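Good morning N.,

You mentioned wanting to compare the apo and holo forms, so I went ahead and generated the holo version with heme C. This is what I fed in:
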Amino acid sequence: MNIFKDKLGRIITSVVLIVLLFVGVVGYVGWYNLFREVPTYYESSEEHFKYGSIGTEQAQGVPYWIWLVLPRIFPDKLPGPGGYTSLGMTWEEGKEMPVGFTKKTIGFPRVGITCAVCHTATYRKSEKDKPTIIPAGPTNKFDPQSYTRFLGNAASDPRFTADYILDEIKYNHEFSWLENLLYRYLIIPQTKKALLQQKEDFAWMDSRPNWGPGRIDPFNPVKFNTLKLPKDDTVGNSDMMPLWNQKMHKNFALHWDGLETSLTETVNTGAIGDGATKQSLPVADLQRVENYITELPPPKYPFAVDEKSAEKGSQIFANTCASCHAFGGERTGTVIPTEEVGTDRHRLDMWTQQAAETYNNFAEGYSWDFDNLRKTNGYQSVSLDGLWLRAPYLHNGSVPSLEDLLEKPENRPKVFYRGYDVYDPKKVGFVSDGSEAERVGFKYDTTVTANSNQGHIYGTDLSGDDKKALIEYLKTL
Ligand code: HEC
Ligand code: HEC
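and this is what came out, ligand included:
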């Protein structure tokens, strides 16, 4: 009897051990293939800015292999030929990922976005020129709305199946049998589900005007999706902003309407707004981004400048613009009431007192908690460093060039094309009309809601010669 009991005991112990071992192995394999985080590190701060993770891959990352083949399976859902480049993405020579996109392994390789997707500009001196990439510049080409829509529309298509996708991935990469299993039964179905959910979360966009390249409704996604505030009918469409030279912007308001006063919080809200979560926010990596944009100088104007004329222009600037725009000007970097500056007020009205309070309570208990979000009554008199590359101008990007901005609103272009990156040194802005601009660009109509080009009439009364000299000076900022 005892012998039998001992044997039974041993068998039970063995079974328990085998089961534990099995659970352990399965657990480890599962963790390794689905959750194991492989840190990415870039020696250079610029590479870190362009390609380093800001914590978006965990919740929002698209599995790399799926991301890679989607444009080949669904070219019909892109705005034009050329795959992702038709959405305004830019590849540097020899780089696997476009500027502003990460490839990071969390279990399996995932694609996330970085600050650089919106905060990197390109320009060309002529149509035949290669794009020059300027990190921290405001993108004039990338269209985040069309990218979001592309992913959502692909996921709703009946061809978004494991069979289709795995067949297409075979052209690039051979999966192990385990990877095949994981992709077929877990990763592809889960990706479809997540992208469909994202499509639903962004359905509110469809009842409002399109953003077009280089623009975004920056805080309605935060209000509706991150803070879970009720949907309202505001339209916040606004132009991207440059990030360089922050050390000269100390104590300036941040964002077009000055809804923030702390740079660190603005950097962290940038990452949260793009899909990082409270748990995944990489505070030290973001500090590195902050240091980078603090020290980075603005880019120099790449064409000739008439120095004599610029010198005359500097006097005109001192008399008509400096109080709001020069470093040290008494109102530079402060919020100017909309009644005074007179530009379109939709972007201002999009952000509410309730949203500011809710965001300030969002991360209570975290070391990086937000406290400095606020509601204002106007737009920031932004500093004009690197002004030439900030085109199109004003917070909604409604005025294509400096020459146009110095015209009375009724004489500014009513319709023009954005998203073409050939530069026009005569008007000082990107080429915004003509066949190529129309072919590549997005038709910007100033009569559409939130697109008005009214207001900011400073300098519009100057003589033709004075305007010329002023523009010459503005090129040097
Ligand atoms: C999806 C596009 C997008 C991404 C990604 C993005 N931003 Fe922005 N950012 C914007 C836009 C648009 C504005 C201006 C929005 C407004 O106020 O209307 C802005 C404004 C800012 C400003 C204020 C600049 C000023 O002079 O007032 C800072 C600073 C900033 N972003 C930093 C970041 C950082 C750092 C990241 C990455 C962690 C980031 N952003 C990611 C679109 C983006
Ligand atoms: C009373 C303050 C004030 C004065 C004076 C003023 N501006 Fe502005 N400026 C602003 C404000 C506020 C904005 C942002 C308005 C908006 O985007 O809706 C702005 C925006 C701009 C922009 C757009 C920047 C961008 O990134 O798109 C340019 C360019 C500009 N101003 C040039 C000038 C010039 C040139 C003068 C002098 C002829 C001048 N401003 C005079 C307040 C002022």
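The pocket of heme C (ligand 2) is lined by residues 256, 320-321, 323-325, 331, 336, 341, 343, 379, 381-382, 384, 387, 390, 393-395, 405, 456, 458-459 (CB under 6 Å).

Happy to go through it together on a call whenever suits you.

Best,
F.
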